[in-house]
Each structure stands twice: as C-alpha cells, then as structure tokens.
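Input sequence (426 aa), recorded before submission:
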Amino acid sequence: MTQAERRSSGYWELIRGNRSFRYLWSGQIISLTGDWFNLIASAALIATLTQSGTAVGGLFVVRMLAPFLVSPFAGVVADRYNRKAIVITTDLLRCFVVLGFVLVRAPEHVWLIYVLTAIQSASQGFFFPAWNSILPDITKREELGIANALASATWSVMLAFGAALGGLVSGLVGVYPAFVIDAVTFLLSAFILFRMPYQSQLNSDADQSIMAGIRQYLYGLSYLRRHIDTFSIAIHKGILGLLIIGFYQVVQVTIAEQYFPIGEGGSISLGLIYVMSGIGSGIGPILGRNWARDRDRKLRLMIALGYVLAMIGFLISATLISFPVILFGALLRGIGGGLIWVLGTQLLLQIVPNQVRGRVFSTEFAMYTLFSAVSSGSTGLLIDTAMGISGVLVLGSALLIAPILLWTLWIQFGRRDPVVAGSLAA
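Predicted structure, token format:
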C-alpha cells in the first residue's frame, strides 16, 4: 500500500470507527454550509440596498470585530463548561438570528443587518473554540493528526461548495429563501451534535474564578512577548487579515455586484469567486506540505511564497479584463492565503509547548479578526473614493512587499524558538 493509500485509509477508518468524531465532523459540514450561505446572501443584500462599498466594508467589520471582542471570554468558557452544550447552544442561537434577516426589505432597514450579524458572529466566536477543544477529547492520540487534517480540508471544501450553493440559491430564488435555508442548516447541525456521544474531560477541581482566567490569559500574552519567533509566526494571521483576507473580501463583493454581476446582486458571481478561493486554500497547503515535509525552514519559505502568490493574484485581478481572469486571480490569492494560514499553524504546533498552546492560538485568532475588521472598513472607504477597484488592488499588492521582505529577513537572520519534542527539526 502506498503512502497516499495509507492516508486515505486512515481518514476512512477514523470516520467509520469513531462515532463521536463522525457526528462532530458532520455537524461541521452542515454548520459551515450555513456560514457561507449567510455570507453570500447578506453581502448581496447590503450591496443591492446601499450601492456602497463603505456599507459592504462595514458588514465585514462587524463579522470580524464581534468574534475579536468575545475571544478572551470564549476561550475561558470553552475550558470551563460542557463543550457539547456550548456548540449546540450557539447553533440554535444562530438558527433564530439568521431568520431575522428576512425582515430587511429597504435601505432604512440595513442597520438590522449589522445588529444580527454582530450576534451571529459573536456566537461563532464561542462555537469554534469549543468545537476545536472537543476534538482531542473524542480522538485517540494517533487519530488527532488525521482528524485535524480532515477538519482543515473540510473547511476549504465547504468554502467552495457552500459559497457556490449560497450564490446559486441567492441568485436564482433570491436572498430571502437563502436565509431560511441557512437557518435550517444550523438547526440540523444542532440535532446532529446532540446525538454525538461525548463525556466532558474538564477538571472540575481547577480554579474557575474570573481572576484565574484573566491571569492565565495574560500569561499567554507574556509568553509571546518573551518568544519573539513564536510571535513573528502568530502575527501572520493578523497580516493575512489586514492585507489579504479582510481587504479582498470587500473588493470581491464590489467586483461581483458592479463589474461582473450574475444573479441577484451579483450573488452567483460572488459565490464563484469564493469557490475559486476555497479551491486555492485547499490545494495550496497540500502542495506546500508535500514539499516542506513539516521541516521548519521549508515551512517558513512556503509562507513567504504565499505572500508572493497573493500579490500576483491581486495584480491579475486589478486588470478587470474578464470574469475568468478575476477567478484566476482569486485562485492564486486563495493558494497564497492557504499557505500562510495552514503552514503558519503547523509551525506553531511544532514550537509552542502544549501548556500555552491554547492561549497562543486564541491570541492569534484575536489578531486576525481585529486586523480583518480594520482592513474591511478601510477598504470600503477606499473603494468609494476616486481610486476605484483597480487602484485599490494595485495598492493592496504593493503593501504586501513589506511582509515579504521582513519575513524573508527573519528567515535568514532571526533567532528561532526550539522545536518541541516529537516534532521534525529544521
């Protein structure tokens, strides 16, 4: 049996043999479908009602800022209360929240989109830390790596599939039926997770005071301050949110709605752009890891390549020659972003000790959401100026030169944190 066949067999054995993971993974598929359904429909609705890049940028600011604000609390909640109950509760909450979007019928109702999006995104901020924390509870040590890989691949696949389906439904039958379908997906996810066999692994004797939680979180921040190499890797998701994801998610809405509209509010066009981004974010890390083989230096070089590919994707999209050209640019941007996200996570898994790993990842996600919010708001304002979409994309590509140069210099001259036991050395 070849190595590829063994990996495929391992995935199948995990799904078939681990009932708890099977339910958790199925819930992830359904829940992610709902997330992308809502994103496409709400972005198309607000673009149609306002015709404003600033308004679209505001939507993404809310989507990112709400999880950032709750992230410190969400980590504490996930470490203190039954995680299965948390993910079920957040799914049910999102089910009712997204039904509120059907009330938005005129420009004067747009404020309701922001309020509902804030509630939905904040609940996601509690959902994902709890979901990720369940994974080690229900898998054996030899299964955890396979489970993590499968979960990451599922995110990319559902980005492509969910965005395509959301764009298709919104474009053909309208955004309001899409919101109803979105609500059903969250209800179905909650039902699947309710059936998941799960025994909480939390230590009831641990200090659960508020001050203890604050001290633990602050220690995680001090760890990053004392380990500059770890911080230099963790900050990549913040840069990704600031200069690539937060930036482009506003630009692509305007491109779909104003330049190449297909379906209501360009929703089908937007869905197709997300499809290409999803495909890129899926295949990029696979190809990158096949070359790097989890070797420290090679992983770092692939992150640098990710920035270069994202920059090229922006420049190609800036031409606005045709919609296929836009899709190709989105593919390259997706490959670049996937390399930065997944391989940066792999580096942290290899150098961050287990006892502070959760707090490092929590801080990393907080930086990503905050910088994405800043980027989305700023990009919306830039689009509404005389600069135009092409000028904004060229500016975005120029700004990527800075992280490329700084990261390359750090690879060559920076002092690396040691690889933890059991990981591959550089």
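Checked by second reader. The CA atoms of residues 64 and 89 lie 21 Å apart.
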